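Good morning,

Attaching, inline, the backbone tokens for the sequence recovery test we're adding to the shared suite. The designed sequence is right after.
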């Protein structure tokens, strides 16, 4: 393939990819503009429920339903996915009258989903439909209908669900986000459901859970430069805490490097009190890691002293 032909091929592929983004972006925007009282009713129905939100769908709709389920569950709305085929063969026994049921079908005529409606009505469930056809059987049989219809799929054959699945996914995100706001869902609540991730670490753990507690590197303000180096080296934290007659000081390895550049051999005549920065930042035990890291980012520092009962009990580092 010639360089010219390859460049043309590359441009064609990029243009085709950009076209997909354009079509799907228009579809999502149009769905957002169509939100009406049915969206409000869906939110209110979920908020009033004392049960879970159960989602179902066949094929691609089922895959999207699983993702919406995961988003709801992680943002404070107890949720589970139910395969409509399995539901019709026994899993409906898991559905309690207090549960909200979200049925997803682009056509609104998916047989496996429609088979469940009679049971859901008899069971007293609040039913939300997500379809691309407001006049469909599923839409008419539900308490509220969320219109995820699209003018065109991004698929050039208009066969593969593309714009429609993206729009349905966005509708699910809209439900989850509005429910978060309605429930005043905060980062610490999110972290409770993600304790293994970095966010869980920042929001659930306290500085005392991660700080260095033993053999803290202390020196006195009258100690020599040589002793400062010895204590800093043995402490392996890249700093020493300086005890002063009034307050504290801090010397970091950066302070040492700057002092060597400035004073050269005369640095050995300097004491800790001469080299230190006065009144380093101290946070109390019980401070959340997230707050400690935010403070460090704000002050452009990498270490904090941790106090308890007016004593330095640890050093917290990023």
């Amino acid at each position: 393939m010639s360089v010219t032909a390859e460049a043309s091929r590359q441009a064609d592929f990029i243009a085709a990819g950009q076209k997909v983004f354009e079509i799907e972006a228009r579809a999502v925007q149009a769905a957002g503009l169509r939100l009406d009282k049915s969206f409000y009713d869906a939110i209110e129905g979920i908020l009033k429920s004392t049960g879970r939100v159960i989602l179902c769908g066949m094929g691609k709709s089922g895959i999207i339903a699983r993702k919406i389920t995961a988003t709801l569950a992680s943002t404070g709305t107890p949720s589970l996915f139910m395969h409509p085929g399995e539901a019709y063969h026994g899993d409906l026994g898991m559905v309690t009258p207090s549960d909200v049921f979200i049925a997803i079908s682009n056509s609104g005529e998916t047989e496996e989903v429609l088979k469940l409606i009679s049971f859901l009505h008899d069971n007293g469930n609040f039913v939300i439909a997500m379809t691309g056809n407001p006049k469909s059987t599923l839409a008419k049989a539900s308490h509220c209908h969320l219109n995820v219809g699209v003018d065109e799929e991004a698929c050039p054959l208009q066969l593969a669900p593309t714009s429609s699945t993206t729009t349905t996914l966005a509708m699910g995100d809209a439900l989850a986000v509005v429910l978060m706001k309605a429930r005043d869902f905060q980062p610490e609540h999110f972290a409770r459901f993600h304790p293994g991730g970095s966010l869980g670490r920042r929001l659930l753990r306290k500085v005392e859970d991660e700080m260095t507690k033993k053999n803290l590197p202390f020196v006195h303000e009258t100690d020599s430069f040589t002793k400062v180096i010895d204590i800093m080296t043995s402490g392996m934290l890249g700093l020493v805490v300086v005890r002063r007659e009034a307050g504290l000081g801090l010397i970091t390895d950066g302070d040492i490097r700057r002092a060597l550049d400035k004073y050269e051999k005369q640095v050995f005549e300097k004491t800790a009190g001469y080299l230190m920065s006065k009144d380093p930042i101290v946070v109390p035990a019980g401070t959340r890691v997230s707050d400690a890291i935010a403070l460090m980012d704000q002050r452009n520092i990498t270490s904090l002293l941790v106090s308890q009962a007016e004593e330095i009990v640890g050093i917290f580092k990023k």
